[in-house]
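Lecture 7 notes: from sequence to structure.
We start with the chain below.
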Amino acid sequence: MDRALTHHICVTCGTQFAATPAEPERCPICEDERQYVGVNGQRWTTLATLRRDYRADIASLEPGLTSIGSTPSFGIGQRALLVQSPDGNVLWDCISLLDDQIIAAVRALGGVSAIAISHPHYYTTMVEWAREFDAPIYLHAAEREYVVRPDPAVRYWEGETQSLGAGLTLLRLGGHYVGGQVLHWAGTADGKGALLTGDVLQVVSDRRWVSFMYSYPNLIPLPPATVRRIADAVAPYPFDRIHGAFGRSILADASAAVERSAQRYIAAVTKGLGT
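Predicted C-alpha cells for the same chain:
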C-alpha cells in the first residue's frame, strides 16, 4: 500500500516541505552555513502535530500592527507581524503554526491580502497561510533556491524595491541573505514610519542598537562594505521604530540607531576591539 503524502516540517528551522510519502533526507536551509542541523540530528514534524502541541500567542504592538507567535517557542522562535493597511493587510514574515485561533484572529483584523517574508528562515508554512487567506507571497528572486514547497502563490520580484501599496515598500538589503528584504511601513498611526526587519537588521539586547550578520547562530560577520550599503539603503526612508525578530523592537529614533550601529560595526571590524 502506498504511503500517504505528507508536508513534513523541519523541527530545527520550522520550514514546511513539498508533500512526500517519507520524511525528506535533509533540510537544505539548515545545512546552509547560516543555520545548523540540531544536535539531535535532522528531525521532522507536521502541522497537525503543531496544532496539538502548540498554541497561538497574539498581541498588539502598536495601532495597526499585531504580533503572531506560538507558545512554546518552535523552530528558531519566529514571529509574524500583521500590518493593517487601507489597501489590504500584509503579513510580514511567517510562523509554522496556523490554527483555528490564529485564523479567526487574523480574519477579525481584516484578513491577509499579501504575504512578504524577510528571508528563508521565515518561510515556515507560508503556502498554508497563502492558501488559507488567498494571498500572494512576495519573495526576492535571489532566494528562489530555498523555496522547498513551490506554489503558484509565490511571486518572485527582482531589483531593490517592491511596492505593496499604501505606503508599504519592500527593500532588498542583502547581507544575511542576498535577497534579504525588510518592509518599510510609512502609514503608521503617528505618521513617523516603522521598519519591519526580521533579523536582516537584528535588534540586539541593548535596544538602542542593531547589528548585521551573515550568520547569527554561527557568528559569521559581514564585511564593512556590505554593512555600509545596508545602512545607506534604508537611510532615505523615514522610520521612528524597528520591529525585528524574537520580540525585539526599537521604539524611538530607530533610523539614527541604524546609522550609529553601522558606524560602530565598521569601526570594530576595521580597527579591532579587545586587542
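Points to note: The chain has one domain: 48-271. Residues 48 and 99 are 9 Å apart (CA to CA).
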